[in-house]
């Protein structure tokens, strides 16, 4: 019998419920509290936690209806147990435990970053391993070596300050483009010249795989302060965006080369950025690397990615998590199942 | 009827399986697991539920919805809601302070930040004032002449009895079933947020009013 897996994701502001059976996505329901955070200019943990509690059961029911299955049909429950916002994670973990306990099925507390990697399976089939994964979002910017997504991910580098998505949010705020900043900057940048302003490429020459976006954000702020007359918003967006994706793709391709790996997977909310996708494609083609990027809707946080990883874990015969599983806001990436 | 009862409104992480007789509303605790550890609600509650479920199969779920610290409350309410959803059971929310109540009693629990949650119950044991969140002095004044219980009253030295300190699962089940039988609505499955959230909108400067 092929197991049916429910995935629950509440690490930030999206209540995501996914249902997967044998690598096939049956439902992906998301309730977002992003509108409630917009007026604060960023995600407010307490607001997110409240929203998860309210949205959980209705979103589960919506996913079940879409998949055409009942709760009693489930064979396992997977949930993001970290990393993420502590209070938000706690709501999802409590729900997952209760569903698993009430249905008498195994519980898997999984790593959010591993789930971002596993989601690609739904669209592009089995993940070639080893692969390099570049995960970029408002919460993370990581380069990872993926030898077996069901067992461990090896961190190669990460941001030393702001996450890439945070830099997009901050620059969007400087330009009055609203929250979240990623899609807004991407849209503006389409009409701009990426070479108009020479913003810095922090740590590009650094031999590590770490990245930094704090200096870039400051450089944009300084440039705007000094600039007289009307701000060329499109050029600022395009030039800023180019600086971010230049560093990210250069380091990702270098990681592939250094490790002799010819598959790169890009995921996380910022992977929905059109310029990141285009430049990654260009550079991977040049370097003879096969690029895999999930469609934009699956790059952002959702339950499908958690269910996809849960599905893989069940298939690989990985031991489930104990019922006293904690929500771990700083869960290390090496740990796929807590 | 067997009722699964959960409460996480205080440092006590409580789960119980309680039999409630339809007729007189008599209650019997079949299994109970209480661990006092205010920082580990999320880790301890499901384990407690699993333990008490060994004593029988519940027909309904009752959950204390506070008042209390939000983080712990959300664990209890989410657990109750998801368990009820999975098993197709009714889930009834009750005021957690009712779990400490008795005739002519003031219930006072610790709200941290030098405040307490409190409510007052009349001679029949019905809540007639509260729940509120205030400084302890206000609760102490309202409690004058009454039996005073709860960890908040203990902390600020005006409890008249050492026990109970935390909500009792039997009492929560009894209150929920009695209210249900009387056709009264259960509380919604949302924490009793008596306080405003701490989040402040940026740029919303303080208004000066005369
Ligand atoms: Zn993410």
Describe the structure in brief.
The complex is a heterodimer of chains A (338) and B (210). With 338 residues, chain A is an alpha/beta fold.
Describe this structure in words.
The complex is a heterodimer of chains A (338) and B (210). Chain A has 338 residues and is an alpha/beta fold. Helix content of chain A is 44%, strand content 19%. Chain A has two domains: 130 residues, Nucleotidyltransferase, domain 5 (2-Layer Sandwich), CATH 3.30.420; 168 residues, ATPase, nucleotide binding domain (Nucleotidyltransferase, domain 5, 2-Layer Sandwich), CATH 3.30.420. Chain A has a five-stranded mixed sheet with strand order 3-2-1-4-5, sandwiched between helices. Chain A is globular, with a radius of gyration of 20 Å. In chain B, α1 runs parallel beside α2. Chain B has five helices and nine strands, in the order βββαβαββββαβαα. The longest helix of chain B is centred in the middle third of the chain and has 18 residues. By secondary structure, chain B is α/β, with parallel strands linked by helices. In chain B, β2 and β3 form a beta hairpin. At the A-B interface, α2 and α3 of A face α1 and α2 of B. Bound molecules: zinc ion. Zinc ion (ZN) binds next to α4 of chain A.
Give keywords.
heterodimer, A: 338 residues, alpha/beta, Nucleotidyltransferase, domain 5, 2 domains, B: Nucleotidyltransferase, domain 5, five-stranded mixed beta sheet, four-stranded mixed beta sheet, 5 helices, 27% helix, disordered C terminus, binds zinc ion
* Structural class estimated from helices and strands of chain A: alpha/beta
Give a count of the beta strands of chain A, DSSP E runs of length 2 or more: 10
CATH class of chain B: Alpha Beta
Overall SS class of chain B: alpha/beta
